Amino acid sequence: DIQMTQSPSSLSASVGDRVTITCRASQSISSYLNWYQQKPGKAPKLLIYAASSLQSGVPSRFSGSGSGADFTLTISSLQPEDFVTYYCQQSSSTPLTFGGGTKVEIK
Amino acid sequence: EVQVVESGGGLVQPGGSLSLSCAASGFTFSSYSMNWVRQAPGKGLEWVSYISSSSSIIYYADSVKGRFTISRDNVKNSLYLQMNSLRAEDTAVYYCARAGLLAATGLYYFDYWGQGTLVTVSS
Q1: Under 8 Å between Cβ of A104 and A14
Q2: Are B47 and A98 in contact (CB under 8 A)?
Q3: DSSP 3-state assignment of A74?
Q4: Residue in A36, A46, A94 closest to B50 by CB
Q5: Neighbours of A14 (CB within 10 A)
């Protein structure tokens, strides 16, 4: 099974900050990497697919990069609604696996 | 508007069974693969099962293999999850998620999710 490791597990930041979340796969997954945002009590929402493609309707302050085993999600300027939890997920092979999540908190 | 709505969750005793349903609308259900993903209280996301558009390909997580059965009815636009021999560790919110496909690469992603249905396994 491919293990997905996110770091950090939590971070504190302020409105307007630029933040980067890292996701590392236990083996190469090419660009088979997706990112999701989850607000408390809600279903996850797709932000980025194929490592760097922005899902329709997602603000351009979100971006993704990487290939192989190392990936990043960047939020260029944090907005109040962005202080929630983010997950990466690989779809290179089954079982499909998620990272442990990164909770972005207000400093 | 694309919608997927889960139902069927509830409280069940260890060793018991429960059947979940997911009603889809707003898209051509028979053209899309579907998944179940779960989230234990306060924990992260765990993929449970995948079924292709024609039901010809099915996958399960090892944690549910042999106990859970995924199925679909393309006439009724519905996805199902039959859960048997339930354990306390199966307690979670279960989400139905559509699998979007990037045809050029074969990459799947979960592009639409339901609101989830809570399954609690406890005596």
Answers
A1: no
A2: yes
A3: strand
A4: A94
A5: 10
**B86: pLDDT strictly greater than 90:** yes
Q: Which residues pair with B20 in a beta bridge?
A: B81
Contact list in B for residue A97 (CB cut-off 8 A) is 47
Give the distance from residue B13's alpha carbon to the nearest chain A alpha carbon, in angstroms. Answer: 25
Q: Which of B77, B81, B70, B80 is nearest to B30 (CA)?
A: B77
Residue B83 makes CB contacts below 8 A (sequence gap 6+) with B17, B18, B19, B20, B64, B67, B68, B90, B119
Per-residue pLDDT reduced to its tens digit, A33-83: 999 999 999 999 999 999 999 999 999 999 999 999 999 999 999 999 999
Are residues A44 and B46, on separate chains, in Cβ contact within 8 Å? no
A75-103 tens-digit pLDDT: 999 999 999 999 999 999 999 999 999 99
Determine the residue of chain B that is closest to A53 in CA distance.
Answer: B102
Residues facing A48 on adjacent strands: A35, A54
Residues of chain A contacting B6 with CB distance shorter than 8 Å: none
Decide if B100 and A46 are in contact by the 8 Å CB cutoff: yes
Comparing CA positions, the residue from A92, A97, A82 lying closest to residue A37 is A82
